[in-house]
Amino acid sequence: MPNPTVERYPELISLAVHEFRTPASVVGGYLRMLQRDSDASLTERQRTMIAEAEKSTARLVALLSELSDIAKIDAGVIKADLKPLDLGALLDDVARHVQNPGDREVQLQLRSDSAGASMNGDAGRLRSAFDAVFRSILREYAGPATIVVEPRRITVEGRPAVLVVVADSDAVQEAYDRPREPFDEKRGGMGLALPLARRIFEQHGGWLLAPGGSDDRIRRSSALILLPITE
User: Fold this and answer.
1) Pick from 174, 79, 80: which is nearest to 119 by CA?
2) Contact 196/173 with Cβ under 8 angstroms?
3) CATH topology of domain 83-228
4) pLDDT at 203
5) What is the mean pLDDT of residues 154-177?
């Protein structure tokens, strides 16, 4: 028997997003007005506090936007705009522009044998999904490290696919060989970007997983992304 509570979940999330977004946007607007008001008799300390408050409000609005997208994908309202694209070229673009958190010596390097791997996909949404996963892995490293993004052509149920391994340069093969388990989406500072990324990959017939096993370091600092390709 259908569960009406579960069926109305997207409607509830949509209502909550609307109710939170409206006051958050108003607060952010007033804070920005204060920042631009040259006549306001504010001390430097007060201006710093206003700037930090405005940043936090903007972050809240961004989180609400991510939550809204998740609810819409789950409800089937947002569908992937599938068009032919080169997966290798898309990965190269994301790897070149992904934001490296802080000033740590952590590098992201693409090793690709998948140039010309064609697929039908939503380039914009895939780009944001890969960016989120790459950033989540980079955040796991405190010191000098080279993180490798290595797409590997494989066959899944008789159909061509690419498995993108994201791991420390010394652990790529191990990450590939290990049993697979759900990717840990609960990571500080990432908001809802990872749950949203997983849904985007699933919309494309793929999945987001992590290496299993007892080595928590490899599990937390690696990702495995599978996407079907057309050739």
Assistant:
1) 80
2) no
3) Heat Shock Protein 90 (3.30.565)
4) 95
5) 93
Distances in Å between the alpha carbon of 181 and those of 132, 164, 169, 187, 216? Answer: 19, 15, 21, 16, 12
Would you call 17 exposed, middle or buried from its count of C-beta atoms within 10 A (0-12, 13-18, 19+)?
A: buried
How confident is the model over 79-96, as pLDDT tens digits?
Answer: 889 999 999 999 999 998
| Cβ atoms < 10 Å from Cβ of 77 | 12
From the DSSP assignment, how many helices (H) and strands (E) are in the chain? 8, 8
Question: How far, CA to CA in Å, does 99 sit from each of 47, 87, 91, 137, 147?
Answer: 27, 20, 14, 12, 13
Task: Residue 195: name the closest of 176, 208, 211 by CA.
Answer: 208
In this structure, what token pair is assigned to residue 33?
């007005």
A 10 A CB-CB count for 151 gives: 24
The pTM is what? 0.84
Neighbours of 82 (CB within 10 A): 13
Supply 183's token pair: 């990717």
pLDDT at 223: 95
Query: Would you kindly state where each structural domain of the chain is located, as residue ranges?
Result: 4-74, 83-228
- From residue 39, alpha-carbon distances to 35, 36, 46, 103 in Å are 10, 9, 14, 36
